[in-house]
Design goal:
single chain; alpha+beta; 5-stranded mixed sheet; two-stranded antiparallel ribbon; 7 strands; 38% helix
């Protein structure tokens, strides 16, 4: 009995240690500096952080293109992608799938988050980027997630497009110029 508890405690401590490392990767205090970061590591860190919300009900599919790194404001870009994934989790009632694809596309770097959730009605796609606008029930959303994400993407000189995902749900695509000189 004591052996089982010790093993469970050891596993719990290993999970905590892993989460701390991922949190440190995710929350770099360098918003003022452009740095090259691995998008794969950033996405994996945020998935670890959001893991408790995924449980067994949401399947995550990832497709990481090469080259994997991009010059960006790391903690800001992490926050933007985390907001998109978090919205996808909220949009999926019951079971579903979130697909995250990253990689270069022409002169840009793209990060797409597609879900099998309820989707965003076309007439609301522009409004959801406004601060404090939310489609969530009272008390469940601040209406700031997509607005903040949009601001972060603009700071990177990029675009945020919301559309229909294949098979239903929402497709959110961040596109950032690879050449940082194009961002000004």
């Amino acid at each position: 009995r004591a052996d089982v508890r010790l093993r469970e405690m050891k596993l719990g401590l290993e999970r905590i240690a892993d989460l701390v490392v991922k949190l440190r990767t995710f929350s770099r205090k360098d918003e003022g500096e452009l740095k090259y970061v691995s998008v794969r590591e950033s996405v994996q860190s945020l998935l670890t952080i959001l893991g408790h919300r995924l449980r067994d009900r949401i399947q995550i599919e990832t497709e990481f293109g090469e080259p994997d790194s991009i010059e960006c404001y790391p903690s800001l870009l992490n926050q933007a992608v985390m907001n998109l994934v978090s919205n996808s989790i909220d949009a999926i009632e019951g079971t579903g799938t979130i697909t995250i694809k990253t990689g270069p596309f022409e002169d840009n770097y793209r990060i797409s988050v597609d879900d099998t959730g309820s989707g965003i009605r076309p007439e609301l796609r522009e409004r959801v980027l406004e601060p404090f606008f939310t489609t969530k029930p009272v008390g469940l959303g601040t209406g700031l997630g997509l607005s903040i994400t949009y601001s972060i993407v603009q700071r990177h000189g990029g675009t945020l497009e919301l559309g229909d995902a294949e098979g239903g749900g929402t497709s959110a695509v961040i596109t950032i110029p690879i050449n940082s000189k194009e961002r000004r």
